[in-house]
Amino acid sequence: MNPRMRGYLALLLGAAMLRLVTSGSFRSFVSPRMQVPLAAAAVVLIAISFVAILGGKRSTAASAGDHHHDHHDEHHSARAMRVGWLLFVPLIVLVGINPTALDASSTDRFREAAPQRPSLVLPPLDPTVNEMSIARFQSYALYDAEQLAGRPITLTGFVADDDEFAAGGFVLTRFMIACCAADAYVLQIAIQPTTSLPEDTWVQVTGTWVEPPGGTYPAAGTFMIGLSPTSVTVLPSAPDNPYESAF
Amino acid sequence: VGTATTSPSDRSVADGAQERAIDRALVVLLGALGVTILLRETTTVLDGSGVRTWSTLFMAMSVQAFPFLVLGVVVSGLIAAFVSPTALQRLLPRRQGLAVPVAGLYGMALPGCECGSVPIAGRLIAGGLPAAPSLTFLLAAPAINPVVLISTAVAFPGQPGVVLARFVAALVAAIAVGWWWTRRANTAVSTPRSSHDHDHRSGNRLQTFASTTLHDLVMAGGYLVVGAAVAASIQIVVPRTVVDQVAGNEITAILTLTALAIVLSICSEADAFVAAGLPQFSMTSRLVFLVVGPMLDLKLIAMQQGTFGSAFVRRFAPATVLAAVGSAAVVGQVLL
């Protein structure tokens, strides 16, 4: 890959990244707090590519006399730089496959999050409205369950099927990421009894915590925390951030 | 395009060949894009959960690495354009035994990834700096500079011990290799055959900056794409139970992640995010991954061979792996 081609490639990469940021679809891949760094890097890259493309044209025109040395080195360099063509692969994947955020079909491929024992005392719950993340709800259920009794809880996620833990209902699912989708954990709450909905439908569920048989949860991996729904609202689209943040 | 055949000079021949190579590459790329869209629109091949999850993970790693990669190559471009090797030379003590650890600590000042540090180390040696401290810098800089430490902190939120352990283990390994090189093989480094040094002498500095930056971006970015594709494939293809079994034993976990670090060739600015995505492995084995990767991987071997020669790599690479794995294993046991 020669310097001029590098310039055009960098321009293309910068433009694609800027488009991902302005359209908001970068949130399908990474945490929302990456917005500013991604936009800044894209703008810087576009500026540098302009310098390289315009300057490259000028030097090609000016150095017609003593080109032999340049060309030898450039040729060697161009061969070593063949790996650079691979940078087109993400662009082809982006435009050709058009990947989306992780969804119900991916849940089996990811580990369940093991809620950490909260280092701080969980805040007291409101008697009427408690909208919270699924991860937070799991922390209450495992470590501060007394607070949950009789309190309405509102959670947001998408629908996934599961006959083992959520027969006669569905699994409210959401992925939690720290940085990018490659480090995702899956969060799941059994919503029952309720009518089933198509997988990947985004819903907001309000209900009350289901106490496990005997009052305590068995070994990890053998149960799913449950919510008995009083209302299930279908959302028109996925939330801005399809993921919950790990911190 | 590609019709510069009016004179029989070297230039037009070389130009023609390059233009044709680019035309071919563009045809292949457009063809690949066309086939992908055709498959998406007319068949269900790309609808499988494997393909969709793979492409999401692949894009996730690529997007996450992007700002770190750009920052790294911009800084390496700035150094190439605006800092002379002789200015750097004055910063080191004359005694090599002392120069080695000092050079290692200077690694903190180079916020780049390993792809940037190979050409820089080559320039330092060509500029008359002794090989041992230059090589210590080469090994230390990609692992202990602020960008890498910050991205490590972001990837392991609430675990500052990982950042400290990475810093200590990488610095210790880099200094160990430097001292070993001082005693055993100090004269064996050939003058670097730098591939783009001429860029830095001619033309104006802004132009030098832009061309070095994009050179490093394309080189490092290409290998990053390979790393992201392999890592996403492993997550999709290898059953979780197999990974869990390998990960369950400390020794096999360390050996597996050493091999993975060398094969994946992920940029040191992004590798912490990959390590964070391997929660089934112990912290010590993931530390090994974070220490080995910036010091030695397939793309570094290729780059070092191009800069320093094969004889160099045959001696340098095994020593580097031993030092990195040993240092990370010990530091991991103590700090994590």
3D structure, described in words:
The complex is a heterodimer of chains A (247) and B (336). Helices cover 33% and strands 17% of the residues of chain A. Chain A is an alpha/beta fold. In chain A, a hairpin with a 7-residue loop joins strand 2 and strand 3 (185-191). The model of chain A is unreliable at 64-76 (pLDDT under 50). Chain A has 5 helices and 6 strands; from the N terminus they run αααααββββββ. Chain A has helices at 3-23, 35-62, 68-80, 88-97, 134-143, and strands spanning 153-160, 170-177, 185-191, 202-210, 226-234, 244-245. Chain A starts with a helix and ends with a strand. The longest helix of chain A is centred in the N-terminal third of the chain and has 28 residues, at 35-62. In chain A, helix 1 (3-23) runs antiparallel to helix 2. By secondary structure, chain B is an all-alpha fold. Chain B is built from 16 helices and no strands. In chain B, helix 12 (250-264) runs parallel beside helix 14 and helix 14 (283-295) runs antiparallel to helix 16. Chains A and B meet through helix 1, helix 2, helix 3 and helix 4 of A and helix 1, helix 2, helix 10 and helix 13 of B.
